[in-house]
Amino acid sequence: MVVKGSVDSFKYVNDINHFGIFILNTSEVKDGSIAVTGNVFGLSEGDYIEVTGNEVIHPVYGKQIKMTSYRAVQPTDTDAVIKYLASGALKGIGPKMAVRIFTTFGVNTLDILEKEPERLAEVKGISENMARNIAIEYASKKSMRDAMMFLQNYNISNSLAAKIYEKYDEKMYSIVREHPYKIAEDIFGVGFKTVDGIAREVGIKENDSERIMSGIQYTLTLALEDGHTYLPMDLLVEKSKEILEVSEDLIEENISSLTITGKITIKNPDKVFLKYVYNEEAYCASKLKALKDAFAKTKETSLEKEYREDAIEKIMSNYSFELDDSQKEAIHAGIENGIFLLTGGPGTGKTTIIKALIEYFFKDRRDVVLAAPTGRAAKRMSEATGFEAKTLHRLLEAKALGDDSEKARFARNEANPLEADVFIIDEMSMVDVFLFAAFLKAVQVGSRVILVGDMNQLPSVGAGNIFRDLLNCGYFASERLTEIHRQSIDSKIIVNAHSVNKGVCPPLDKNDESNDFFFLERGEKNRLTNDIIELVKNRIPKKFNVDPSEIQILSPSRKGDLGVESLNRILQKHLNPEDKRKSEITRGDNIFRLGDKVMQIKNNYDLEWVCRGFNDIIVERGEGVYNGDIGKIIRINEFERSVTVLFDDVRETTYARDEIEELELAYAITIHKSQGSEYPAIVIPILDTPRMLLTRNLFYTAITRATDCVMILGSSEKIKEMVSNDSDRRRYTDFTQRLKEVMD
Asked: Stretch 387-398: mean pLDDT, rounded?
């Protein structure tokens, strides 16, 4: 629908992304006014506009227009012109002055403002200086509205138009017409396909060099999302050709141009990197060498060696069990080296080593810092060791980069390093090249870095395969723990996890009631879904004495009948059903209800959180909620359309209406999202899983998330296929080569 009217008042505006709600006064609707929602960048109270959008019925607030675009139009009737002037949009003009101006100039008022603003001084009470100020402000607002209208001509959305105008101001006209691909370089979150659409609208040709160079960089950016830090030349040309639909010769020619301009780097001789990605890998290699060398140059005296060995012996004697040789070697290596890597599966004693190292360094009066990539992993580390552990983002004091809440800058860096003698980082398999580089930039040479993880779990979601590459390169002290210890041997979860890791499928036909590992053969989806509901609501809580909220369903995929999206809708209906006493809010296809289990689905470095103490007093404040954080909805404000989520039982975050899209239900999550977390009980449906997801390390990662109960439902044949398939999707990373260049 298309409606003309004047902006009466704003009910809500988000200053970051410009989403807003306003009342439009218009004679074209029955009640004389209607609520409008959408991007309100450039709008002021009193503006006379033409709104294009869809009429929707809100369950609480009734009829609204969901605006897709607007354009400024000149008000023509007396009341509309006076209301615009008196709205406060132009400083110095109130209701009485607005009447005076209109009385002086009549229907020509807005033309005078635009073309002869100095004539405003003819109005009683307006000086020449005041007339100039009003003219400047009117011109600024008109410039903004003209820019929005110009951008809408090229089918650019209001939200992107706002970003373009804020970035370039008046330069945007030439950039959009002549260099639209620059927008993808300069504005985070704007991709090649978006600007390629704009380029077509302004008439840029398919074989334009700027288009081809932008497409090549886009292809390398897509590769980053698949975990690669580079692409082989032939694969880059092939994939770029699919996207750009131009000849290979043109692509190769423009790859050379990108090399000359410093946007990409080519190594050995056909590995093509985005320059900044190559730089991060190279930085990590050189910094690790510096950290290692700082300790290699320090010679230990015989007295120091005797003290160290005596201290280690005393620590080990405190344990009620005998440490095996690999554990003892790990403790010595962690103390003696600047860089130490520790890997092992569940039950092999990684936590024992960490605790022993912490105890040694504390007795040696060393400052020790513990960290992990996610909030849940940091919480687990704290609970296991008894010492505070932070997320890496919190440790590095991550803040939003400019106005972009998704992109981070770190307050801790080479210019402002962390003060500590020892850093112990857990769940290292989750750490990508960018986060690892940011961490190393904040570490001073002379500090020890101890990296802990399970190399057989899934690699990081982001680019690189840092932990595995470090373990395989052979340049750093490392220990691989393989022995399952006495205190873990009774756990079928741990025993079966190690079997899976060796390619041996655990017995699926023996469900001993004393076990903690179960399998139910199911071939029919509806029955399997009903079993999941029964297991989560009744059977697992009764047998293992856990609350249903502590049981996590882990699915290999998002889509399909047994994917995360479908399961969450079903589980919400049964675990947190609709109730008149429970507030709820609808966002797109999702319903969020008081008490729902939810997950943050992207990093937001701007989101504020608080921790409350006795009598609800706020005892701590901070910023940043991260991809994969899981919490519970504890409040819903239906009037403001906001929800408040409690994360990790401590951090409380309120989401405004337009931020709710960063949440999704989390009764079921993907196995990838579960990495770094631990749950008392998990349920894993495996039936119609896509073949590309039937991998050993995916299954291994899933079953090692549970402490007390693993329940698998579905096809035993699919599970056997997963266990036998150790062919992980290859990641193109060159980190070992960067290490070789600096180490040899």
From this structure: 93
